[in-house]
Model the fold of this input.
Amino acid sequence: MALFSQLLLVLSTLTLARSATLGSSVVDGLDFSSYHDYPAMKNALERLVAKYPSLAKLHEIGTSVQGRKLYAIQITDYVNTREIGEPRFKYVANMHGNEPVGRELTIGLAQYLLSRYGTDHRVTSLVDNTDIYLMPSMNPDGFEKAYEGDCNGLVGRANHNGVDLNRNFPDQFSSSTSLIQPETAAIINWLKTDPHFVLSANFHGGSLVANYPYDNSPYGYSQGFYSKSPDDSAFRSLAYTYSKAHATMSLGHQCQGDNFLNGITNGAHWYEVSGGMQDYNYLHSNCFEITVEQSCCKYPKASTLSSYWRSNKESLLAFMEQVHTGIKGIVTDNSGAPIANAKVKVYGINHDVVTSSQGEYWRLLTPGIYSVTVEASGFKSAVKQITVTSGAAQIHHVTFDRATRTGSFSS
Done:
């Protein structure tokens, strides 16, 4: 009888251990037990849209070489109505098909935001005040070729035509020898949509660091050259926001060969990339984008995915909240009609943003004192000295008087 009791105890212990192992893949109600292949990813996104039709919409941004759709799920409180003054934000993952941790994190983030809307104050505030877009896979063809457990390989990295998509965008310093790929063209066209995105990050694997522009320099592949953008201060702050909120990234020595102070790096200072997506975002739209390397192993085993969610969840939310910093406003004439394509200039920072078709602008800035000028064709410019503080973006509307042809800040 004692032997039977001992056997029952052993079986019970094994059952509990197995349950604990299985349960470890579920975090915050999200199941990270396996990777989503293309049909599973599509179904997961479609189920979320069906379950939360007032908060989520599925967009087809483009098509891969092999005909797979590039899906982005939009999440916001009035998903069928454009809310004036609400900034657009995006996460793009799986640009390299064999680096899929971000693919799973964006799918998980979509579920996390939607399931907690209305009960979690932080999530509700983000969804109410941000037009969020999450693209789990920019390179679905490459993902289908890659294989789980391949930490350092190249299988599936490129698209079906063998082109590295993060070397395929038009570059300010060099000319690409590759034709623009369908996946690249899809992003380029997406960036032209009105209003422009304000903030973005794209996810990679193979290291653990938040990388910011510029990725390239006029000096070619000279490793160690710091290629500073006009908004270097803002980009360093954005990258550090992600890094410091991460479980270990800010320590800077997490992967073999890594040596990143505070877990951030200027792209070219690390190694030069010609034709990168983050630089293109910054130079050809209003969008500030960084590149986040999320895992030492490019394609880790699915059994580790829940740990990546735990490590990145706070970073994903904290970085998204940065879209609501700096200054923002609406530019109109004195009758209230919006003025599109007005330029918002900041003295000492040689990078302008332009207003949307509704006159909206968002200008990310670190705390400090700035001289801000708004220029509109046919008018005398509006100029104001603004003290930017940390926290929520300050609102500064601008009005141009059609009688006097002058502009002024109205707040």
